[in-house]
Write a structure and sequence with these properties.
The complex is a heterodimer of chains A (about 70) and B (about 325). In chain A, about 10% of the residues lie in helices and about 40% in strands. The longest helix of chain A has 7 residues. Chain B is about 50% helix and about 10% strand. Chain B is of the alpha/beta class and about 325 residues long. In chain B, strand 4, helix 3 and strand 5 form a beta-alpha-beta unit. In chain B, the strands form 3 sheets. In chain B, strands 5-4-3-6-8-7 form a 6-stranded mixed sheet, sandwiched between helices. Chain B has a two-stranded antiparallel ribbon with strand order 1-2. Chain B has a two-stranded antiparallel ribbon with strand order 9-10. Chain B contains 13 helices and 10 strands. Classes of the chains: A mainly beta (about 70), B alpha/beta (about 325). Chains A and B meet through strand 4 and strand 5 of A and helix 6, helix 7, helix 9 and helix 10 of B.
Chain lengths: ~70, ~325
């Protein structure tokens, strides 16, 4: 599957099928700090991702002036 | 996973609530959390005019959307910070959001209106840019709210923001900051009330809210915040949260409900003995407020009246 990452924006290929949890584990990403979007749809960590999917992993952590 | 409420397929799991939600019930969950924050801490009264500090990011746009949805009269204020492409994109997101919904967005541009920008201020002061940015935001959101007759300034600080600030304050046992850290900073002479209605929502929830509401927010992170201490605290807290869901909420809500009062005395003196800044009229402890001193230091035209003893910026 094609996985789109942000900050900086880049793409990686990860073989499927696998669950969202397994994908995040493979990419060493904390599930608390990202959303996973399969196509146009938000998905939970038990969702299965197919090899043909395009998946965006969107970081949610922002920082700076308070 | 199934929605906790209706058993339809879920789109997001919220581990600290041991729950997952479908779109409709997640949006309701977010609104309920904001309504609870506002009601429990008396953030906004009926009839108040609210000015939302809008950055174009997920938190401020979600906040504005929820406040209007809950029936509050809320306009936005966008502050142009002059951080290159990042500022261009965040301005676009804020303007498009307001335009598409028919909301009123005020704009202030640091460079055009005050003669400096954040990268320039950071270079001159040789300090982290977040310091100049935070000072500019605090001053201008308050000043614009006063000038335009708003009762409350609402900012998009979320549970993660507040927990990270709390961790920093606790690590230093900074009792003054702990006394001032609260989701409500009441109005005082020269200050409008400041509130943080998103403090019960994690930033993963505010981001999901935007995705599910079709809000096109600025996803890219501020390039000047990269690697800052605040983000380091968030990483630590998210590691804790992953191992122990609910840790961030327990830490922050426990402080707000059980510990904040113990530090209030340390902060009580902060707003006493203030006088008007001789340049802009804002409340300050000296003759010239920190904002005007920053402007002077970065070379912006600031007129200080003759005869005033002016502390050199330092």
């Amino acid at each position: 599957m094609k996985v789109v990452l942000r900050n900086p924006r880049r793409e990686v290929q990860v073989p499927g099928p696998l669950t969202v949890s397994a994908l995040l584990q493979r990419l060493e990403l904390n599930p608390e700090s990202v959303l996973v979007i399969q196509g146009d749809t938000l998905v939970t960590r038990d969702a299965r991702l197919a090899d043909a999917d395009v998946v965006e992993i969107r970081p949610v952590t922002s920082g700076g002036a308070t | 996973m199934k929605c906790r409420v209706c058993r339809e397929p879920a789109v997001i799991d919220v581990r600290r609530h041991n729950a997952a939600f479908c779109r409709a019930h997640f949006l309701r969950h977010c609104r309920d959390q904001v309504r609870r924050a506002i009601d429990d801490l008396e953030m906004i009264e009926a009839g108040d005019r609210v000015l939302v500090a809008v950055s174009g990011g997920k938190d401020s746009l979600a906040l504005w959307d929820v406040l209007v949805d809950l029936g509050y009269t809320a306009d936005g204020l966008y502050l142009g910070l002059g951080i290159g492409e990042y500022s261009d994109e965040s301005a676009h997101a804020a303007r498009a959001f307001a335009r598409d919904r028919g909301f009123e967005l005020h704009e202030v541009d640091l460079s055009a209106d005050y003669g400096y920008d954040i990268p320039g201020a950071a270079a001159v002061t040789r300090r982290a840019p977040c310091g100049a940015c935070g000072l500019s935001k605090r001053h201008l959101f308050n000043a614009v709210a006063l000038e335009r007759g708003y009762d409350v300034v609402a900012t998009g600080h979320n549970l993660d923001d507040e927990a990270a600030v709390l961790l920093g304050n606790v690590l230093r046992w900074d009792s003054g900051y702990l006394g001032r850290q609260h989701p409500v900073l009441p109005a005082a002479p020269g200050f409008v009330q400041k509130v943080k209605p998103l403090y019960r929502l994690a930033e993963r929830e505010t981001a999901a809210y935007c995705v599910l509401r079709g809000i096109d927010y600025q996803v890219e992170e501020c390039p000047m915040a990269e690697g800052n201490r605040h983000l380091g605290y968030k990483d630590v807290l998210n590691s804790l949260e992953d191992r122990s869901p609910g840790a961030k909420a327990s830490f922050l809500f426990g402080f707000v409900e059980k510990a904040h009062d113990r530090f209030v005395d340390e902060a009580d003196g902060e707003r006493e003995g203030l006088q008007a800044c001789v340049v802009c009229g804002s409340p300050t402890t000296g003759d010239v407020c920190a904002f005007c001193r920053l402007r002077e230091r970065v070379g912006a035209p600031v007129e200080i009246p003759v005869g005033v003893t002016h502390r050199p910026p330092g």
